């Protein structure tokens, strides 16, 4: 039965990336306990400062020293929540560019997917896309950062899209034998390819072309 349903994906999390080891002078154990309102204000100030530095100068600008100075907190305070500069940077990205995707079930899987892909294209055309490209590039030599991006960014979005595709299978709009993970790769990989390589524009027309080309092969054939 068709109707309206929403799958909301909001990413805010803290991960540990061992790109900057904690020294004895900056050890989290030396920090006071978390939980006071002042501590929460300090945490949010840190995220805002790190996000500002990312926007202004990328990962290179978001050092622990610069983040602490901009936020008006000590490095010890920062280490209460994050173990490294990389961890702060990734969490700050999701704090600033907090993407919430809502799938509206119109009963037309092609239209629903096209709308969602256009949202991601719009996001990637701005500063959020430039920073995401930098994070992906850095992740190629930083396994912990790569895992952070997979679990915090990729996995929730794939789960949401898989739900949409499975509903289409259940409604006999798509073949029951399709491999949903592969279909998702085919739908979204070109966006990241264009984002990283810059060989073609991330224009809205790409969304419809991808959905049309890929779902045509996955559609149920009526004879």
Note down, in words, how this protein is organized.
With 223 residues, this protein is mainly alpha-helical. It contains 9 helices and no strands. It has helices spanning 37-57, 64-71, 75-78, 85-96, 109-124, 127-139, 143-170, 180-197, 205-218. The longest helix is centred in the last third of the chain and has 28 residues, at 143-170.
What tags apply to this protein structure?
223 residues, mainly alpha, Tetracycline Repressor, domain 2, 2 domains, 60% helix, disordered N terminus
Concise account of the structure shown:
The protein is mostly helical and 223 residues long. The protein contains nine helices and no strands. The model is unreliable at 1-35 (pLDDT under 50).
Corresponding CATH architecture of the largest domain: Orthogonal Bundle
Largest sheet: none
- Secondary structure class reads mainly alpha
CATH fold group of the largest domain: Tetracycline Repressor, domain 2
Find the count of extended strands (DSSP E, 2+ residues).
0
- The portion of residues assigned to helices is 55-70%
What's the domain count?
2
List the helices and strands and how they pair.
Blueprint: H1 37-57, H2 64-71, H3 75-78, H4 85-96, H5 109-124, H6 127-139, H7 143-170, H8 180-197, H9 205-218
